[in-house]
Every structure is written in structure tokens, then in C-alpha cells.
UniProtKB/TrEMBL annotation:
Annotated InterPro entries: NTF2-like_dom_sf (IPR032710), Pathogen-related_defense (IPR053218)
Taxonomy of the source species: Eukaryota, Fungi, Fungi incertae sedis, Mucoromycota, Mortierellomycotina
Gene3D superfamilies listed in its UniProt record: 3.10.450.50
PANTHER family referenced in this protein's UniProt entry, alphabetically: PATHOGEN-RELATED PROTEIN, PATHOGENESIS-RELATED FAMILY PROTEIN
Name used for this protein in its record: Pathogen-related protein
Signal peptide (residue range): none
Length: 230
């Protein structure tokens, strides 16, 4: 069986032409790719399920974050695709395009309010605070297609100021600690016979990343969103 390129090459979709990219061109993934190569905890054989699933998810994330037209996404089955976090309501591809990947995954926590952060703002929050990139790796696959259950790790170094809304009037501002922050989770994916994603159910603690960034951090402030920028 010939596998699609998005399962054998983690950057496959970046070469797609005649698609609508968010910034008018394919994004630059050099920082997260370099971080992944330097600090991943697993090196999977190229024919392993872990390697293939890792590439599929990385390409899905690139499409979800940077392709602005749902029709251009190659990693999903457009007829049935849906996404949920921690047993919450199912979201469609259009929901994710409107909300953004970070907002769709984080929702509402004591440290972050997705209702008060737009698509661009949410990406800027993590681009500014995790300046060296936010890498992702598949740790272990527990079941093969068509129902693929896997554990993952997401990490980066907190080297830039964190600014994130916690309500419509207030935000948290925290100075960087220059420490590595990481989160773990489990995802269950249903795929079709073309290995396109039909559904994704992700389970993890949305507050975990902020707990990592704010623990033992003496430089944290609550600031009004309408006031002077911190």
C-alpha cells in the first residue's frame, strides 16, 4: 500500500501549491522542527505506527493553523470530520478555522479565556512566550487504524513574556523563567482507508501548560486588558 505523503513527511503540506495560506505563504517551521530534533525523547523507526501517526498529526496541525480554506486541508475526511477536547462538544473544521487551534484545545481555564482571545491573538500568545518553538512528538501508539489511540508530548522553553486573557477585562502577565515547559495527553483518532482523519478526541489538562509557566514564578501580574500594556 502506498502511504500518503502527509504520513511519511512531517512537512509535506508545506509544499502544497495554490492554497490559501494565512499569511499569504507557507509558514516557517524551522524553530519547532529544530527543537523537535534536539529534544525529542523518542526516535521511531520510519515504518512504525508512531512515526506515521506523528507525521499525520504534524501535517494536520499545520493545515489547521495556517490553511484558511477548509477545502485545502488534505489530512481530513471533509464529509465527517469532527474534533473534541476532554469529552466536550464536537467541533467542525469551520469551528476550528474560526476559533484557532489553541483556542479549540484550551477552552476556558483559570489562566486563559478562549472566549476573549481571537485566532491571531491566541497564536501570538504562544509565539511570544515560547520563542524557540512549541514542539510535539508522539510517544506511543496503543492501537492501529482505523481507531488510533496514542499518547503525546508538547513542549517548549518559556523565554518570552506571557500575556493571556483570563476574562474580558483582565489578563495575566508573567515574565519568562527560561525553563522548559511540557504537557502530555492522549488522543483517539478515527481515520478512513486513505488515512484521512474522520474524528479526533483529545484528552489532557488544559491548565497544565500554564501551571508549568507560572509555578515558582515571582513575576506574575494581573492587568486590565484596556489599561496600559505590560
Amino acid at each position: 500500500m502506498t502511504l500518503p505523503d502527509y504520513m511519511t513527511d512531517r512537512n509535506a503540506v508545506l509544499a502544497d501549491e495554490n492554497v490559501a495560506w494565512r499569511d499569504g505563504k507557507a509558514p516557517n517551521y524551522s524553530k519547532p522542527n529544530a527543537l523537535f530534533e534536539a529534544e525529542r525523547t523518542q526516535i521511531h523507526p520510519s515504518d512504525s505506527l508512531e512515526h506515521l501517526v506523528e507525521n499525520l498529526v504534524k501535517n494536520w496541525e499545520k493545515e489547521a493553523s495556517f490553511k484558511t480554506q477548509a477545502a485545502d486541508w488534505r489530512t481530513i475526511d471533509h464529509k465527517v470530520y469532527k474534533f473534541s477536547t476532554n469529552g466536550g462538544e464536537w467541533q467542525t473544521v469551520e469551528d476550528m478555522l474560526r476559533l484557532g487551534t489553541y483556542n479549540a484545545l484550551l477552552g476556558e481555564t483559570q489562566y486563559y479565556s478562549s472566549k476573549n482571545s481571537g485566532f491571531e491573538e491566541s497564536h501570538l500568545t504562544f509565539k511570544q512566550s515560547l520563542r524557540g518553538g512549541f514542539a510535539w512528538e508522539c510517544l506511543k501508539v496503543y492501537s492501529g487504524p482505523p481507531v488510533v489511540a496514542f499518547k503525546w508530548r508538547h513542549w517548549g522553553k518559556f523565554t518570552g513574556k506571557l500575556r493571556c486573557p483570563i476574562s474580558d477585562t483582565e489578563k495575566i502577565v508573567a515574565e519568562p523563567t527560561n525553563k522548559t515547559v511540557e504537557i502530555f495527553g492522549v488522543t483517539v483518532a478515527h481515520v478512513n482507508d486513505k488515512f484521512q482523519i474522520e474524528s479526533l478526541e483529545t484528552f489532557y489538562d488544559p491548565a497544565a501548560l500554564f501551571n508549568e509557566m507560572l509555578k515558582d514564578n515571582a513575576n506574575i501580574a494581573r492587568c486590565p486588558i484596556t489599561g496600559q500594556s505590560a
